[in-house]
């Protein structure tokens, strides 16, 4: 099974930016789509966005225009660029190979002044 590792989380002020990375243990050229999810304290895990093999993306409405997902197949990595962060974006962020049970363990993003 493909192993996924998220990184890049941390503490950021409202309006700031972070870039998260999801590195796979093997080639992702044939592994797609890859999705990002998040789980805020006391809430259910929710879908954030997904990137397909051709780089096409879809996002949940709350992050449209602020978050961008991209992929670098040569590096076996999918990125989540987060701009204009809001306190409500605070959550543990996870990546997942869509349609499978391959999840990373998550990286914590805290947005607070």
How would you describe the overall organization of this protein?
- The chain has 113 residues and is mostly beta strands.
- 0% of the residues lie in helices and 47% in strands.
- The protein has no helices and 10 strands.
- It has a 6-stranded mixed sheet, with no helix packed on it. Strands 1-3-8-7 form a 4-stranded antiparallel sheet, with no helix packed on it.
- A hairpin with a 6-residue loop joins β4 (34-39) and β5.
- The model has no long low-confidence stretch (mean pLDDT 94).
Largest sheet: 6 strands, mixed
Name the assembly state.
single chain
Shape: globular
Report the sheet-strand fraction: over 45%
E-strand count: 10
SSE topology string: EEEEEEEEEE
**What is the helix content?**
under 10%
Q: What's the rounded overall pLDDT mean? A: 94
Question: How far apart are the first and last residues' alpha carbons, in Å?
Answer: 40 Å
Q: Ranges with pLDDT <50 over ≥5 residues?
A: none
Which radius of gyration do the C-alpha atoms yield? 13 Å
Given helix and strand content, the structural type is mainly beta
* Strand arrangement across the biggest beta sheet: 2-10-9-4-5-6
What's the helix count? Answer: 0
